[in-house]
Design a protein that fits this description.
- It is a single chain.
- By secondary structure, this protein is of the alpha/beta class.
- It is 36% helix and 14% strand.
- It has helices at residues 40-45, 48-52, 63-73, 86-97, 113-120, 163-171, 226-239, 246-257, 259-282, 304-313, 337-354, and strands at 27-28, 80-83, 104-107, 125-128, 147-151, 178-181, 202-207, 220-224, 285-287, 294-299, 316-317, 329-333.
- α3 runs parallel beside α8 (246-257) and α9 (259-282) packs parallel to α11 (337-354).
- The termini are far apart.
- Pyridoxal-5'-phosphate is lined by residues 32, 85-87, 111, 151, 155, 181, 183, 207, 209, 215, 220.
């Protein structure tokens, strides 16, 4: 730390992204990326012509892409906000709607960025414990008079709550904003987007990074009431008005136009998820039911950190946290069948050695 850093940030603990090692080729099952490349039409859309226009700023309103998303989800362009990854969207949400009087609540075990933003903006924050089996009890968020941020399905557990449970949370906190982070909704969950027309305090946030194979393009979006979108715009135009670059915009439009390709990939991921959980079961693992493109799993014969390190030594990366409540567990991204077979083979090898 230099002597120039504002004292406000002296104690700030920054978010730690999953490892992106550049030293060797790993079977990468640690950051929930898609194992599948973007659709062929995306490669064609990000072409020489588009690159030749990089001397010009992109459309700050992102009209073409917002309209595409609006048509796809059956809402109006005024309901759609775009961000440089949903991480930026979360940043804008915390900045726009939370303050000393408007505290924020989120699950104590969830996406690691939520507490970082709360700390960055020095917000009063309630980290609400999960229940038995890492289950999220929607009643814990009803009528609490705080802004609410919930990942559904939750990360890193993979568990989801129902749309009617979400509706109860939204309905019972009418004077506070509720953000539902649906980063993983396209892997078998049920989206709460239909509630947006009914409640002016609901913001549904999604990303192109997982289901849509575009993590490197950095694109997230939110759908909510026009007034909420206007508030987010105010923050965006006060920080970075050109937050979506031309190439990502072109890639994203082609992505929406090729939804079938991604739906088929998701079907394969869900199939591989069931297969992987089934095989792990035979190896004495406990795996939570998952609606996401990862599983949260625990070996009854080995501590989570030891398993993570043994896998890494064999070229397979998974995610592990030292946090005591989840130290026994690892989060494993579901990749291609071939990747999952390598993962399972390494697990069998490791277990043979501990026997
Ligand atoms: C991956 C993830 C994000 C971040 O997505 P980006 O669009 O890549 O910034 C947000 N929320 C959750 C719960 C995630 O898992």
């Amino acid at each position: 730390m230099s002597k120039f850093l504002s004292a406000r940030f002296a104690d700030l603990e920054a978010y730690v992204p999953g490892e992106q090692p550049q030293d060797m080729q790993y079977v990468k099952l640690n950051t929930n990326e898609s194992p599948f490349p973007p659709a062929p039409a995306v490669l064609e859309a990000v072409n020489a012509l588009e690159i030749s226009r990089l001397n010009l700023y992109p459309d700050p309103e992102c009209r073409a892409l917002r309209q595409k998303l609006a048509d796809f989800y059956g809402v109006k362009m005024e309901n759609v906000f775009l961000a440089n990854g949903s991480d930026e969207l979360l940043n804008f949400f915390f900045l726009a709607f939370c303050d000393e009087e408007r505290a924020v609540a989120y699950p104590a075990i969830s996406y690691g960025f939520y507490p970082v933003y709360a700390s960055l903006y020095r917000l009063p924050a309630a980290a609400i414990p999960l229940r038995e089996g890492f289950r999220l009890e929607s009643g814990d968020y009803c009528g609490i008079g705080k802004n609410v941020v919930i990942a559904n399905p939750n990360a890193p557990t993979g568990r989801a709550i129902s749309v009617s449970e979400i509706e109860e949370i939204v309905r019972s906190n009418p004077d506070r904003a509720v953000l539902i982070d649906e980063a993983y909704i396209d892997f078998g969950g049920e989206s709460c987007l239909p509630l947006v027309g009914k409640y002016d305090n609901l913001l549904v946030c999604q990303t192109f990074s997982k289901f849509r194979s575009l993590a490197g393009g950095r694109l997230g979006f939110a759908i909510g009431s026009p007034a909420l979108i206007e508030d987010l715009d105010k923050i965006k135009y006060s920080t970075n008005s050109y937050n979506i670059n031309r190439l990502t915009m072109a890639a994203a439009i082609a992505t929406i136009e090729n939804n079938d390709y991604y739906a088929e990939n998701s079907r394969r991921i869900q199939e591989n998820r069931a297969y992987t959980a089934g095989e792990l079961e035979k190896l004495d693992f406990e795996t939570l039911p998952s609606q996401a493109n990862f599983i949260f799993t625990r070996c009854r014969r080995m501590e989570g950190g030891a398993l993570y390190r043994a896998l890494k030594a064999r070229g397979v990366l998974v995610r592990h946290w030292e946090k005591p409540e989840i130290a026994d567990w690892c989060r494993v991204t579901i990749g291609s069948r071939e990747q999952m077979d390598v993962f399972l083979e390494k697990v069998r090898e490791i277990l043979k050695e501990v026997d």
